[in-house]
Amino acid sequence: MTETQHKYAVKANNNDDLTDTFRLLLHCAIGDDLASLGAIKLIVKGYPAALSAPFDGLLPIQMACGSKISGLVKYLVELEGSSIELEDMNGNNLLHLACKSGNCGAVKYLLEKCAPLASLENKEGMLPVHLLSDNSGKDEAVLESKEYTETIWRLLLAHPATVSSALDSNRSHKRMRVSAAH
């Protein structure tokens, strides 16, 4: 290896280390509910490449859907532009991820930005409204909030077929119970 090649190889390794450092820093900040949107903006401004670096299979925008940092999803979507239709390996789009964590602010924003996401099923056949209405893993204060109830209504209005599907399923279960009892 020539001296020039060595110099560029060292620089490339340092850039990889820097990328890893900022990637980890950004993901930790998103995962820390005590971090501020301002701190995340500083990290992104200092090293924008960290936005495209996945951590545990998720990009920062996907992790942000589960964050309690107000305005984070909006900031990252508007910064990245076309990332709104991303899916994880389970077929969850950003709306699925926000619903799964009970991030009502992100759900509202994503519905305003791209309402058709509400009608997309993940690989398990679940719609975003199914994930939001599942209480597991959600903070009790969120579940009891007016915003949570309003968010479920917004999802139902965005995809009305969910209501008739749920009613049909409920009727089918009742018929099966009645016939099993006889």
Describe this structure in words.
The structure is a single chain. By secondary structure, this protein is an all-alpha fold. The chain has 10 helices and no strands. It has helices spanning 3-31, 37-46, 60-64, 72-80, 94-101, 104-113, 128-133, 140-143, 146-158, 161-181. It is globular. Residues 1-14 and 172-180 have low confidence and may be disordered.
Task: List key phrases describing it.
182 residues; mainly alpha; globular; disordered C terminus
Produce a short descriptive summary:
This protein has 182 residues and is mainly α.
Q: Strands, helices and their partners?
A:
Blueprint (H helix, E strand, L loop, with lengths): L2 H29 L5 H10 L13 H5 L7 H9 L13 H8 L2 H10 L14 H6 L6 H4 L2 H13 L2 H21 L1
Strand percentage, roughly? Answer: under 5%
The assigned structural class equals mainly alpha
- Tell me roughly what share of residues is in helical segments: 55-70%
For the termini, the CA-CA separation is 84 Å
SSE order in H/E notation? HHHHHHHHHH
Give me the count of strands. Answer: 0
Q: Biggest sheet, open or closed, and with what strands and sense?
A: none
> What's the mean pLDDT score?
80
Instruction: Report the principal-axis shape.
Output: globular
Low-confidence parts: 1-14, 172-180
Report the C-alpha radius of gyration, rounded: 21 Å
Alpha plus pi helix count: 10
